[in-house]
Write a structure and sequence with these properties.
- With 738 residues, this protein is of the alpha+beta class.
- The chain has two domains: 195 residues, no CATH class; 399 residues, Immunoglobulin-like (Sandwich), CATH 2.60.40.1730.
- It is built from 19 helices and 31 strands.
- β11 and β12 form a beta hairpin.
- The protein starts with a helix and ends with a helix.
């Protein structure tokens, strides 16, 4: 077979297999990597017919002492053993112990001495603050002491009798601890002091001994709390009574059950009005009322009671400084209240934006996942934080003293509120193990956050989660990077990786790989399957494929199991036209001229289209090409159809290791353009270099890959042909690359 005939095969096959391919199996399945499906978790990604999970219910009495900034509490835990296993002991989490003496965080922390460092960086080192739980007693339902043992941030309680499948047990714990000053220790839970008026804002979480998760995947959760990896918790019902100074206002997980005991008649009336106010928030406690409380500082006490059903945790914020507003939101058949609690230091920004952001989040997230099921969603303000709990989150965003603020502060505050309120869905409802797999809540949530921001705040330039926004991280120092499938405590670049990279991966999956409609159906299926359950990464991966009929193992492998990057290079574009049909057929011994396909071995590499098209010939098909087929193709008709067509051979290389779809923009001589999308499977035979032939009616002047920067290509300077462009769009493209 002569060389000219080989060109026909190039219309459908890749070149360069023998010379270029270094097979790495990027399209091999994840079967051996993911856990084997079973009766608890199926191969489709859905919970199995025998899926189970434990339940832990709490009844608590808490008192916050505003004089010495401490908490004293007692709880009764009712633990339901829904597993098929017999349990001889229970494990609880004592997360306040992260700062106790000789804790693992302190003893394993690393660092170095820096000259001229701020003195504040040593504040925690020299502090004599006594942190951690003081567990006073653990008792059974009859008041008899139960043996317990504390292992850093975990506590084991030995049971008097083994707890059999289907049984439950109630036991009590009494405890106390000193509330951490967040400005010194930087924790998620603690106090903020305001020296000008001598008052505090308390943002309180991880404040009670909480049950660990026991599941089908690893039995008891046993990862100590080291700070980065957050929480893994069972669902349950809560009844919590919180005693605070009589002029405090509390925002908490759940429904306030005794407003008549803790609110004034005016506040109750405003609160009731908010329940039917859908267009704007109702201010329940005004700024002037809160400012007056700052001065009077009542010494009497009040007890607030909150009930919450089917939640995985409980948190609250309390202060006499709080302004309080609320607004009803229509979500399906429910009307949850979007609420904000903030001091005067948060205004005017918080009054303008906070509850609006809560409302926007509930509406957009509900559309993409499940209808928000809880009765309230709260944004509480305190300094330099973004932290989430069921129905309540703590957020930053403080204007200057004169009330002015920059657009950047407004954007940051809106972003953090949307993100933290969004955590109600991931992981408070779709309840992954945060301590083991951060991207499943932070990354997935950051992705839906971006969808909400783009829809509800189109005037702001959002970048986290967009492909262009992750490029600097992706092409950065590999020694600082970890695959997404890495435990939180081993991650170095936490934000860019577990938040932004994971969000970007899902954004690309939605916008470029699967398409919005298909992705949204599969993503919603995942949310519905795993609402109020404990999904693992395999459940997410498998559900997304099961609900879309798209094999995505190559995508999960590249984005979640490696630190590879996308760096596609447009190596060369060759332009061909067919010789005159008559001369091609008559002249069987055509001489190969420079520029023909046969001259490829000469090393001549064209850099533009200035020399015009290279000519090539087709010949009549010999009988042996048909094998046993009796019919024959009309060779002359094929030649006639190709006559005058522009044929382009495009050669691409993959220098970053991450296989991704190929997006080609063709710019034509008549001023028009065309966008062509090729699935990532084009790399399935050769993961490093490919060639593909395109037949075009029009004459091409420019070719560009990934023109809209959809795939996080880390070097778009080599995405154009010709390499030197004189077109304004290409100039803008190159400017973005720099």
């Amino acid at each position: 077979m002569n060389r000219i005939l080989i060109f026909l095969l190039a219309l459908s096959l890749n070149f360069g297999w023998a010379q270029e391919n270094k097979w790495q199996g990027k399209f091999e399945q994840l079967d051996q990597t993911l856990p084997t499906p079973n009766e608890y978790r199926t191969g489709s990604g859905a919970p199995g017919p025998k899926y189970w999970q434990q339940q832990a219910d709490y009844v608590m009495n808490i008192e916050l002492n505003d004089d010495n900034q401490s908490i004293t509490g007692s709880e009764t835990i009712t633990y339901h053993n829904n597993s098929p296993d017999v349990l001889k002991y229970l494990w609880l989490q004592l997360d306040q112990n992260i700062l106790s003496e000789n804790n693992t965080l302190k003893t394993t922390g690393t660092g170095a001495v820096k000259d001229s460092a701020a003195a504040k960086t040593y504040a925690a080192e020299v502090s004599d603050f006594k942190a951690g739980f003081n567990v006073k007693a653990v008792k059974d339902a009859a008041g008899k002491g139960l043996p317990f043992m504390i292992n850093n941030t975990m506590m084991r309680v030995d049971l008097p009798q083994p707890l059999k499948p289907g049984e439950k047990i109630s036991f009590g714990v009494d405890w106390s601890f000193n509330i951490v000053d967040r400005s010194v220790f930087g924790q998620r839970s603690g106090l903020e002091y305001f020296p000008e008026d001598g008052n505090y804002i308390y943002a309180i979480a991880q404040f009670f001994p909480r049950m660990c998760v026991y599941d089908d995947y690893e039995g008891w959760q046993n990862k100590q709390f080291l700070g980065k990896g957050e929480f893994t918790l069972p669902f349950g019902d809560y009844k919590v009574r919180i005693t605070v100074p009589g002029d405090h206002i509390i925002g908490a997980t759940g429904v306030l059950k005794n407003p008549q005991d803790v609110l004034t008649k005016t506040e109750i009336d405003r609160f009731e009005k908010a329940k039917t106010s859908f267009d704007k928030p109702v201010i329940i406690v005004t700024q002037s009322e809160a400012t007056q409380k700052e001065k009077t500082k009542l010494k009497t006490k009040k007890t607030w009671e909150f009930h919450a059903e089917n939640v995985r945790d409980f948190a609250f914020a309390t202060s006499r400084k709080f302004i309080w507003d609320a607004q009803a939101v229509k979500i399906g058949s429910k009307t949850p209240l979007a609420m904000s609690f903030y001091p005067k230091e948060g205004n005017p920004l918080w009054e303008q934006e906070s509850t609006k952001a809560v409302k926007n989040t509930l509406e957009v997230y509900s559309r993409h996942t499940i209808d928000y099921p809880y009765p309230v969603a709260i944004s509480a303000h305190t300094a330099s934080i973004g932290m989430e709990y069921p129905m309540i989150c703590f957020n930053f965003g403080r204007p200057k003293k004169d009330g002015t603020y920059t657009p950047q502060l407004r954007q940051g505050m809106i972003g953090v509120i949307v993100h933290e309120v969004g955590h109600n869905f991931f992981p408070m409802i779709i309840n992954n193990d945060e301590r083991q797999t951060t991207w499943m809540d932070e990354g997935v949530n950051s992705f839906v956050q971006l969808i909400c921001e783009l829809e509800r705040y189109p005037d702001i330039d959002w970048s986290r989660g967009k492909p262009a926004g992750i490029v600097n991280y992706m092409k950065g120092d590999k020694n600082l990077q970890r695959p997404l499938m890495t435990n939180s405590e081993q991650v170095i670049m936490f934000g860019p990786e577990q938040y932004a990279k994971a969000a970007t991966a899902l954004y690309i999956l939605r916008e470029t790989v699967m398409g919005k409609d298909l992705f949204d159906k599969a993503f919603k299926e995942y949310a519905q399957r795993w609402a109020f359950k404990h999904p693992k990464p395999a459940d997410f991966f498998r559900t997304m494929e099961d609900a879309s009929a798209v094999d995505l193992d190559w995508f999960w492998k590249g984005w979640f199991y490696t630190t590879d990057v996308n760096d596609q290079t447009l190596e060369q574009v060759k332009w061909y036209r067919l010789r005159d049909e008559k001369s091609s057929v008559e002249n069987k011994n055509v001489k190969v001229q420079k520029g023909d396909l046969a001259a490829e071995g000469s090393g001549d590499k064209k850099t533009d289209f200035n020399d015009g098209p290279q000519e090539f010939s087709l010949v009549e098909t010999k009988p042996q090409f048909y094998g046993e087929f009796q019919s024959r193709i009309d060779d002359k008709a094929i030649m006639k159809k190709l006559q005058g067509k522009n044929i382009y051979e495009v050669t691409l290389s993959n220098k970053g290791g991450l296989v991704m779809p190929v997006i080609i923009e063709w710019r034509y001589k008549d001023g028009t353009s065309e966008l062509e999308r090729i699935p990532a499977e084009i790399w399935r035979i050769n993961e490093n270099k490919i060639s593909k032939v395109f037949v075009k009616e029009k004459e091409v002047t420019n070719v560009m890959i990934d023109p809209n920067m959809e795939t996080a290509d880390v070097n778009i300077e080599d995405n154009m042909f010709p390499k030197v462009q004189k077109d304004s769009k290409f100039d803008q493209f190159k400017k973005k690359a720099n």
